[in-house]
Specification:
By secondary structure, the chain is an alpha+beta fold. The chain has helices at 166-175, 193-201, 210-225, 238-255, 261-275, 319-335, 340-343, 408-423, 426-429, and strands at residues 2-5, 15-21, 28-29, 34-39, 44-49, 53-58, 65-67, 71-76, 90-94, 98-100, 106-108, 141-143, 148-152, 228-236, 281-284, 287-290, 296-298, 300-302, 305-307, 310-311, 348-352, 371-385, 388-402. The protein is 25% helix and 28% strand. The protein has a 6-stranded mixed β-sheet with strand order 14-23-22-21-17-20. A 5-stranded mixed β-sheet has the order 7-2-4-5-11, with no helix packed on it. The protein has a 4-stranded antiparallel β-sheet with strand order 1-8-6-3, with no helix packed on it. Strand 22 and strand 23 form a beta hairpin.
Length: 436
Protein backbone atom coordinates (compact mmCIF):
# COMPACT_ATOMS: atom_id res chain seq x y z
CA UNK A 1 0.00 0.00 0.00
CA UNK A 2 1.50 3.33 -1.10
CA UNK A 3 0.45 6.75 0.20
CA UNK A 4 -0.29 9.63 -2.18
CA UNK A 5 1.07 12.96 -0.94
CA UNK A 6 0.34 16.61 -1.62
CA UNK A 7 3.47 17.70 -3.55
CA UNK A 8 5.42 20.87 -2.79
CA UNK A 9 5.39 22.85 -6.05
CA UNK A 10 7.63 25.72 -5.01
CA UNK A 11 9.63 27.06 -2.10
CA UNK A 12 6.79 29.22 -0.76
CA UNK A 13 3.99 26.70 -1.13
CA UNK A 14 2.50 25.71 2.22
CA UNK A 15 -0.86 24.35 1.14
CA UNK A 16 -2.52 23.07 -2.00
CA UNK A 17 -6.22 22.98 -2.81
CA UNK A 18 -7.47 19.88 -4.57
CA UNK A 19 -9.45 21.20 -7.53
CA UNK A 20 -10.70 17.77 -8.58
CA UNK A 21 -9.76 14.12 -8.50
CA UNK A 22 -9.37 12.80 -12.04
CA UNK A 23 -9.71 9.19 -10.86
CA UNK A 24 -12.10 7.49 -8.45
CA UNK A 25 -11.70 4.94 -5.68
CA UNK A 26 -11.38 1.48 -7.19
CA UNK A 27 -9.86 2.69 -10.46
CA UNK A 28 -6.78 0.92 -11.77
CA UNK A 29 -3.81 3.29 -11.79
CA UNK A 30 -0.75 2.92 -14.02
CA UNK A 31 2.46 4.70 -13.13
CA UNK A 32 2.28 8.11 -14.78
CA UNK A 33 -1.53 8.34 -14.86
CA UNK A 34 -2.96 11.67 -13.75
CA UNK A 35 -4.48 11.54 -10.27
CA UNK A 36 -5.74 15.03 -9.42
CA UNK A 37 -5.48 18.75 -10.10
CA UNK A 38 -4.06 20.98 -7.37
CA UNK A 39 -4.30 24.76 -7.10
CA UNK A 40 -1.36 26.56 -5.51
CA UNK A 41 -0.90 30.27 -4.95
CA UNK A 42 0.54 30.42 -8.47
CA UNK A 43 -1.30 28.04 -10.77
CA UNK A 44 -3.32 24.87 -11.24
CA UNK A 45 -1.15 21.82 -11.88
CA UNK A 46 -1.90 18.23 -12.80
CA UNK A 47 -0.36 15.59 -10.55
CA UNK A 48 0.57 12.12 -11.72
CA UNK A 49 1.13 8.83 -9.92
CA UNK A 50 4.53 7.29 -9.32
CA UNK A 51 2.99 3.87 -8.66
CA UNK A 52 0.90 1.23 -10.39
CA UNK A 53 -2.02 -0.25 -8.52
CA UNK A 54 -5.60 0.45 -7.49
CA UNK A 55 -6.83 3.69 -5.94
CA UNK A 56 -8.04 2.32 -2.66
CA UNK A 57 -8.81 5.46 -0.66
CA UNK A 58 -9.25 9.21 -1.12
CA UNK A 59 -8.84 11.00 2.21
CA UNK A 60 -9.28 14.60 1.05
CA UNK A 61 -11.79 15.28 -1.70
CA UNK A 62 -12.45 18.06 -4.19
CA UNK A 63 -12.18 21.56 -2.73
CA UNK A 64 -10.11 20.57 0.31
CA UNK A 65 -7.02 22.62 1.20
CA UNK A 66 -4.22 20.39 2.46
CA UNK A 67 -0.76 21.05 3.89
CA UNK A 68 2.09 20.10 1.57
CA UNK A 69 3.48 16.58 2.06
CA UNK A 70 0.26 15.45 3.74
CA UNK A 71 -1.03 12.02 2.77
CA UNK A 72 -4.24 12.55 0.79
CA UNK A 73 -4.93 9.02 -0.40
CA UNK A 74 -3.59 5.49 -0.84
CA UNK A 75 -2.81 3.22 -3.78
CA UNK A 76 -3.02 -0.55 -3.35
CA UNK A 77 -0.30 -2.54 -5.02
CA UNK A 78 -1.29 -5.29 -7.48
CA UNK A 79 -2.80 -8.20 -5.63
CA UNK A 80 -3.11 -6.29 -2.36
CA UNK A 81 -6.47 -6.18 -0.61
CA UNK A 82 -7.84 -3.07 1.06
CA UNK A 83 -7.44 -3.21 4.85
CA UNK A 84 -10.48 -3.01 7.10
CA UNK A 85 -8.98 0.00 8.89
CA UNK A 86 -7.04 2.64 6.96
CA UNK A 87 -3.93 4.32 8.43
CA UNK A 88 -4.27 7.83 9.72
CA UNK A 89 -3.41 10.70 7.37
CA UNK A 90 0.22 11.60 7.91
CA UNK A 91 2.33 14.68 7.32
CA UNK A 92 5.67 13.80 5.70
CA UNK A 93 8.57 16.09 6.61
CA UNK A 94 11.70 15.72 4.44
CA UNK A 95 15.05 17.03 5.59
CA UNK A 96 16.02 17.94 2.03
CA UNK A 97 14.42 20.75 0.07
CA UNK A 98 11.68 19.92 -2.41
CA UNK A 99 12.36 21.72 -5.66
CA UNK A 100 10.98 22.04 -9.16
CA UNK A 101 12.80 20.24 -11.96
CA UNK A 102 11.66 21.88 -15.19
CA UNK A 103 10.58 19.57 -17.96
CA UNK A 104 8.88 17.02 -15.71
CA UNK A 105 5.37 16.56 -14.38
CA UNK A 106 4.45 16.82 -10.72
CA UNK A 107 4.68 13.42 -9.07
CA UNK A 108 2.70 12.63 -5.92
CA UNK A 109 3.59 9.50 -4.05
CA UNK A 110 6.07 7.83 -1.71
CA UNK A 111 8.37 4.85 -2.00
CA UNK A 112 8.16 2.19 0.67
CA UNK A 113 6.23 3.12 3.79
CA UNK A 114 6.64 6.80 4.68
CA UNK A 115 9.87 7.56 2.85
CA UNK A 116 10.22 9.58 -0.33
CA UNK A 117 13.21 8.61 -2.43
CA UNK A 118 14.29 7.53 -5.87
CA UNK A 119 11.79 9.98 -7.42
CA UNK A 120 14.28 12.58 -8.58
CA UNK A 121 15.11 10.91 -11.88
CA UNK A 122 11.62 9.67 -12.73
CA UNK A 123 10.08 11.34 -15.71
CA UNK A 124 6.53 10.92 -16.90
CA UNK A 125 5.99 11.30 -20.63
CA UNK A 126 3.94 14.24 -21.90
CA UNK A 127 0.20 13.92 -22.42
CA UNK A 128 -1.99 15.94 -24.69
CA UNK A 129 -3.32 18.93 -22.82
CA UNK A 130 -0.92 18.51 -19.94
CA UNK A 131 0.11 21.52 -17.88
CA UNK A 132 3.75 22.08 -17.07
CA UNK A 133 6.95 24.04 -17.16
CA UNK A 134 9.28 22.39 -19.62
CA UNK A 135 9.38 22.34 -23.39
CA UNK A 136 6.90 19.47 -23.36
CA UNK A 137 4.66 21.17 -20.82
CA UNK A 138 5.57 19.06 -17.78
CA UNK A 139 6.22 19.72 -14.10
CA UNK A 140 8.06 17.47 -11.67
CA UNK A 141 8.56 17.54 -7.92
CA UNK A 142 12.11 16.37 -7.21
CA UNK A 143 12.88 14.92 -3.80
CA UNK A 144 16.52 14.05 -3.31
CA UNK A 145 17.46 11.28 -0.84
CA UNK A 146 15.22 12.62 1.90
CA UNK A 147 15.03 10.97 5.30
CA UNK A 148 11.48 11.41 6.45
CA UNK A 149 9.85 11.82 9.79
CA UNK A 150 6.15 11.39 10.27
CA UNK A 151 3.64 12.65 12.77
CA UNK A 152 0.10 11.56 13.17
CA UNK A 153 -2.63 14.08 12.35
CA UNK A 154 -6.14 13.76 13.76
CA UNK A 155 -8.45 11.50 11.83
CA UNK A 156 -9.83 13.22 8.76
CA UNK A 157 -13.46 14.03 9.40
CA UNK A 158 -16.11 12.19 7.45
CA UNK A 159 -16.87 15.44 5.63
CA UNK A 160 -13.26 15.81 4.46
CA UNK A 161 -14.29 14.40 1.09
CA UNK A 162 -16.81 16.78 -0.41
CA UNK A 163 -19.46 15.07 -2.51
CA UNK A 164 -21.09 17.28 -5.11
CA UNK A 165 -22.87 16.86 -8.42
CA UNK A 166 -20.98 17.82 -11.59
CA UNK A 167 -23.37 20.75 -12.20
CA UNK A 168 -22.80 21.98 -8.65
CA UNK A 169 -19.03 21.79 -9.07
CA UNK A 170 -19.16 23.65 -12.39
CA UNK A 171 -21.37 26.42 -10.99
CA UNK A 172 -19.26 26.80 -7.84
CA UNK A 173 -16.05 27.04 -9.86
CA UNK A 174 -17.62 29.60 -12.20
CA UNK A 175 -18.74 31.78 -9.29
CA UNK A 176 -15.48 31.40 -7.38
CA UNK A 177 -17.12 29.64 -4.42
CA UNK A 178 -15.45 27.05 -2.23
CA UNK A 179 -17.60 23.95 -1.81
CA UNK A 180 -16.42 23.83 1.81
CA UNK A 181 -18.77 26.74 2.53
CA UNK A 182 -21.90 25.02 1.19
CA UNK A 183 -24.11 22.54 3.04
CA UNK A 184 -25.43 19.79 0.80
CA UNK A 185 -29.07 18.68 0.95
CA UNK A 186 -28.76 15.63 -1.28
CA UNK A 187 -28.33 12.00 -0.22
CA UNK A 188 -25.44 11.65 2.21
CA UNK A 189 -24.90 15.41 2.25
CA UNK A 190 -24.27 15.56 -1.52
CA UNK A 191 -24.14 19.17 -2.75
CA UNK A 192 -26.66 19.81 -5.51
CA UNK A 193 -26.82 22.68 -8.00
CA UNK A 194 -29.75 24.09 -6.03
CA UNK A 195 -27.56 24.26 -2.90
CA UNK A 196 -25.05 26.42 -4.76
CA UNK A 197 -27.80 28.68 -6.14
CA UNK A 198 -29.27 29.05 -2.65
CA UNK A 199 -25.85 29.96 -1.31
CA UNK A 200 -25.44 32.61 -4.02
CA UNK A 201 -28.76 34.21 -3.08
CA UNK A 202 -27.97 34.24 0.63
CA UNK A 203 -26.09 36.96 2.47
CA UNK A 204 -23.31 34.59 3.42
CA UNK A 205 -19.82 35.95 2.77
CA UNK A 206 -18.25 34.12 -0.16
CA UNK A 207 -14.97 32.49 0.77
CA UNK A 208 -12.07 33.86 -1.32
CA UNK A 209 -10.23 31.50 -3.61
CA UNK A 210 -6.71 30.39 -2.73
CA UNK A 211 -5.38 32.80 -5.38
CA UNK A 212 -7.32 35.72 -3.88
CA UNK A 213 -6.11 34.84 -0.38
CA UNK A 214 -2.46 34.68 -1.41
CA UNK A 215 -2.72 37.89 -3.45
CA UNK A 216 -4.28 39.71 -0.51
CA UNK A 217 -1.60 38.47 1.88
CA UNK A 218 1.30 39.39 -0.39
CA UNK A 219 -0.02 42.81 -1.34
CA UNK A 220 -0.77 43.64 2.29
CA UNK A 221 2.75 42.58 3.31
CA UNK A 222 4.26 44.55 0.43
CA UNK A 223 2.37 47.74 1.24
CA UNK A 224 3.22 47.50 4.94
CA UNK A 225 6.89 46.56 4.68
CA UNK A 226 8.11 48.07 1.40
CA UNK A 227 8.59 51.88 1.48
CA UNK A 228 6.79 52.82 -1.74
CA UNK A 229 7.12 56.11 -3.55
CA UNK A 230 5.50 57.06 -6.85
CA UNK A 231 6.55 59.01 -9.92
CA UNK A 232 3.84 59.98 -12.41
CA UNK A 233 4.28 61.17 -15.98
CA UNK A 234 2.21 61.91 -19.10
CA UNK A 235 3.85 60.94 -22.40
CA UNK A 236 3.09 61.83 -26.01
CA UNK A 237 2.00 58.52 -27.58
CA UNK A 238 1.58 59.74 -31.17
CA UNK A 239 4.53 57.81 -32.61
CA UNK A 240 3.85 54.76 -30.47
CA UNK A 241 0.31 54.47 -31.83
CA UNK A 242 1.43 55.07 -35.41
CA UNK A 243 4.11 52.40 -35.20
CA UNK A 244 1.71 49.94 -33.63
CA UNK A 245 -0.73 50.52 -36.52
CA UNK A 246 2.10 50.03 -39.06
CA UNK A 247 3.42 46.83 -37.49
CA UNK A 248 0.09 45.22 -36.54
CA UNK A 249 -0.73 43.76 -40.00
CA UNK A 250 2.88 42.70 -40.55
CA UNK A 251 3.17 40.74 -37.29
CA UNK A 252 -0.38 39.43 -37.65
CA UNK A 253 0.57 38.00 -41.04
CA UNK A 254 3.82 36.44 -39.81
CA UNK A 255 2.59 35.06 -36.46
CA UNK A 256 -1.21 35.23 -36.35
CA UNK A 257 -0.92 37.42 -33.23
CA UNK A 258 -2.34 40.93 -32.94
CA UNK A 259 0.34 43.31 -31.73
CA UNK A 260 -0.63 45.35 -28.66
CA UNK A 261 0.64 48.50 -27.01
CA UNK A 262 1.62 46.29 -24.07
CA UNK A 263 3.93 44.25 -26.33
CA UNK A 264 5.70 47.41 -27.45
CA UNK A 265 6.00 48.72 -23.91
CA UNK A 266 7.51 45.41 -22.73
CA UNK A 267 10.23 45.71 -25.38
CA UNK A 268 10.95 49.36 -24.57
CA UNK A 269 10.97 48.62 -20.84
CA UNK A 270 13.64 45.96 -21.32
CA UNK A 271 15.88 48.51 -23.04
CA UNK A 272 15.31 51.13 -20.33
CA UNK A 273 15.91 48.59 -17.56
CA UNK A 274 19.19 47.49 -19.16
CA UNK A 275 20.35 51.11 -18.89
CA UNK A 276 19.21 51.33 -15.26
CA UNK A 277 19.87 47.95 -13.57
CA UNK A 278 18.63 49.14 -10.16
CA UNK A 279 15.10 48.79 -11.57
CA UNK A 280 15.88 45.08 -11.96
CA UNK A 281 17.01 44.48 -8.39
CA UNK A 282 15.79 42.91 -5.15
CA UNK A 283 16.27 44.14 -1.59
CA UNK A 284 17.95 41.57 0.65
CA UNK A 285 19.06 41.84 4.26
CA UNK A 286 22.73 41.58 3.29
CA UNK A 287 22.56 43.89 0.27
CA UNK A 288 20.87 44.69 -3.03
CA UNK A 289 20.81 41.84 -5.53
CA UNK A 290 21.06 42.95 -9.16
CA UNK A 291 19.33 40.41 -11.41
CA UNK A 292 21.03 39.48 -14.67
CA UNK A 293 17.98 38.39 -16.67
CA UNK A 294 15.20 40.85 -17.41
CA UNK A 295 11.98 38.91 -16.82
CA UNK A 296 8.93 41.16 -17.10
CA UNK A 297 5.66 40.09 -15.52
CA UNK A 298 2.51 41.28 -17.27
CA UNK A 299 -0.47 41.48 -14.91
CA UNK A 300 -3.58 39.70 -16.21
CA UNK A 301 -7.09 39.41 -14.77
CA UNK A 302 -8.64 35.96 -14.40
CA UNK A 303 -12.02 34.91 -12.99
CA UNK A 304 -10.90 34.60 -9.39
CA UNK A 305 -8.22 37.28 -9.11
CA UNK A 306 -5.09 38.81 -10.55
CA UNK A 307 -2.19 36.77 -11.87
CA UNK A 308 1.19 37.86 -13.28
CA UNK A 309 2.67 35.54 -15.93
CA UNK A 310 6.30 36.28 -16.80
CA UNK A 311 7.94 36.87 -20.19
CA UNK A 312 11.53 35.74 -19.68
CA UNK A 313 14.74 37.33 -20.99
CA UNK A 314 12.78 40.05 -22.72
CA UNK A 315 15.88 41.95 -23.83
CA UNK A 316 16.88 38.94 -25.93
CA UNK A 317 13.51 38.68 -27.69
CA UNK A 318 12.16 40.40 -30.77
CA UNK A 319 8.86 42.27 -30.78
CA UNK A 320 7.08 39.43 -32.54
CA UNK A 321 8.48 36.91 -30.03
CA UNK A 322 7.23 39.07 -27.17
CA UNK A 323 3.78 39.30 -28.76
CA UNK A 324 3.61 35.51 -29.20
CA UNK A 325 4.80 34.88 -25.63
CA UNK A 326 2.28 37.37 -24.23
CA UNK A 327 -0.65 35.84 -26.08
CA UNK A 328 0.34 32.30 -25.09
CA UNK A 329 0.57 33.25 -21.41
CA UNK A 330 -2.74 35.13 -21.43
CA UNK A 331 -4.52 32.20 -23.07
CA UNK A 332 -3.09 29.79 -20.50
CA UNK A 333 -4.11 32.16 -17.69
CA UNK A 334 -7.71 32.35 -18.93
CA UNK A 335 -7.82 28.55 -19.24
CA UNK A 336 -6.29 28.06 -15.78
CA UNK A 337 -3.33 26.19 -17.27
CA UNK A 338 -0.42 28.35 -16.18
CA UNK A 339 2.45 26.35 -14.75
CA UNK A 340 4.87 27.32 -12.00
CA UNK A 341 7.59 28.41 -14.42
CA UNK A 342 5.12 30.73 -16.20
CA UNK A 343 4.74 32.73 -13.00
CA UNK A 344 8.06 32.43 -11.20
CA UNK A 345 11.18 34.57 -11.57
CA UNK A 346 9.76 37.96 -12.55
CA UNK A 347 12.12 40.91 -11.98
CA UNK A 348 9.84 43.81 -12.99
CA UNK A 349 6.08 44.10 -13.50
CA UNK A 350 3.96 45.98 -16.04
CA UNK A 351 0.25 46.44 -15.33
CA UNK A 352 -1.88 48.04 -18.04
CA UNK A 353 -5.52 48.98 -17.43
CA UNK A 354 -5.79 51.22 -20.47
CA UNK A 355 -7.96 48.71 -22.33
CA UNK A 356 -10.53 49.05 -19.52
CA UNK A 357 -10.74 52.82 -19.90
CA UNK A 358 -8.69 53.72 -16.82
CA UNK A 359 -6.84 57.03 -17.25
CA UNK A 360 -4.20 56.48 -14.56
CA UNK A 361 -3.65 54.57 -11.33
CA UNK A 362 -1.01 53.54 -8.80
CA UNK A 363 0.06 49.92 -8.30
CA UNK A 364 1.56 47.96 -5.41
CA UNK A 365 5.00 46.45 -5.91
CA UNK A 366 5.00 42.70 -6.46
CA UNK A 367 7.60 41.34 -3.99
CA UNK A 368 10.48 40.63 -4.14
CA UNK A 369 10.72 43.06 -7.08
CA UNK A 370 11.63 46.70 -6.55
CA UNK A 371 9.37 48.45 -9.06
CA UNK A 372 6.11 48.21 -11.01
CA UNK A 373 4.87 50.39 -13.88
CA UNK A 374 1.14 51.17 -14.07
CA UNK A 375 -0.13 52.28 -17.49
CA UNK A 376 -3.45 53.96 -18.27
CA UNK A 377 -5.34 54.38 -21.53
CA UNK A 378 -4.06 56.30 -24.53
CA UNK A 379 -6.49 59.17 -25.08
CA UNK A 380 -6.72 62.47 -26.92
CA UNK A 381 -5.79 65.13 -24.39
CA UNK A 382 -5.05 68.83 -24.56
CA UNK A 383 -1.34 69.60 -24.14
CA UNK A 384 0.76 72.69 -24.64
CA UNK A 385 2.94 72.75 -27.74
CA UNK A 386 4.98 75.93 -28.13
CA UNK A 387 2.58 77.69 -25.81
CA UNK A 388 -0.41 76.67 -27.94
CA UNK A 389 -3.00 74.18 -26.64
CA UNK A 390 -3.32 71.22 -29.02
CA UNK A 391 -4.94 67.81 -28.85
CA UNK A 392 -2.62 64.80 -28.86
CA UNK A 393 -2.84 61.13 -27.89
CA UNK A 394 -1.06 60.76 -24.55
CA UNK A 395 -0.56 57.98 -22.05
CA UNK A 396 -0.22 58.40 -18.30
CA UNK A 397 2.15 56.20 -16.36
CA UNK A 398 2.87 55.73 -12.66
CA UNK A 399 6.10 54.12 -11.48
CA UNK A 400 6.04 52.61 -7.98
CA UNK A 401 9.52 52.15 -6.50
CA UNK A 402 11.02 50.48 -3.44
CA UNK A 403 12.91 53.34 -1.75
CA UNK A 404 15.34 50.88 -0.13
CA UNK A 405 16.66 49.89 -3.56
CA UNK A 406 16.76 53.16 -5.47
CA UNK A 407 16.07 56.84 -4.90
CA UNK A 408 14.03 59.41 -6.75
CA UNK A 409 16.88 60.60 -8.97
CA UNK A 410 17.67 57.12 -10.37
CA UNK A 411 13.97 56.36 -10.83
CA UNK A 412 13.44 59.69 -12.58
CA UNK A 413 16.31 59.04 -15.01
CA UNK A 414 14.80 55.66 -15.83
CA UNK A 415 11.40 57.24 -16.44
CA UNK A 416 12.90 59.97 -18.63
CA UNK A 417 14.67 57.38 -20.78
CA UNK A 418 11.44 55.38 -21.07
CA UNK A 419 9.59 58.58 -22.06
CA UNK A 420 12.10 59.23 -24.83
CA UNK A 421 11.72 55.67 -26.10
CA UNK A 422 7.92 55.85 -26.13
CA UNK A 423 7.97 59.18 -27.98
CA UNK A 424 10.62 57.97 -30.46
CA UNK A 425 9.97 54.24 -30.81
CA UNK A 426 11.48 53.86 -34.29
CA UNK A 427 14.99 54.36 -32.91
CA UNK A 428 14.55 51.55 -30.41
CA UNK A 429 12.37 48.92 -32.10
CA UNK A 430 13.42 49.09 -35.76
CA UNK A 431 16.18 46.50 -35.21
CA UNK A 432 14.11 44.32 -32.89
CA UNK A 433 10.85 43.71 -34.75
CA UNK A 434 11.46 40.22 -36.11
CA UNK A 435 12.94 37.07 -34.65
CA UNK A 436 16.65 37.41 -33.98
Amino acid sequence: MQPIIMPMLGDTMEQGTIVRWIVSEGDHITKGDLLFEVETDKAINEVGSSFTGTLGKIIYGDGCSVDVLSVIGFILEPGEDAPDIWPHPTLLKPDADVTIDEGKRAIAGTKGTLAINELADEQISDRSGGVGTGEEGLIHTEVMHADLESKTKPDAPASAKIVASPRAKTLAQKEGISLNAIKGTGPGGRIQEGDVLKFLKSETVVAPSRLQQITAERMTTSFRTVPHFYLRIEIDATELVEWRNKLLPIILHSTGVRLTITDMLVLLLSKAIRRHPRLNATWMEDGIRLMQDINIGVAAAVDDGLIVPVIRQVDQKSLEQIACARRSLVEKAVQGKLAWSDLDGGTFTLTNLGMFGIDDFDAIINPPQSAILAVGKIAERVVSEGGVPVGKPTVRMSLAVDHRVLDGVVATRFLMDLKDMVENPEEHIADAIFQR
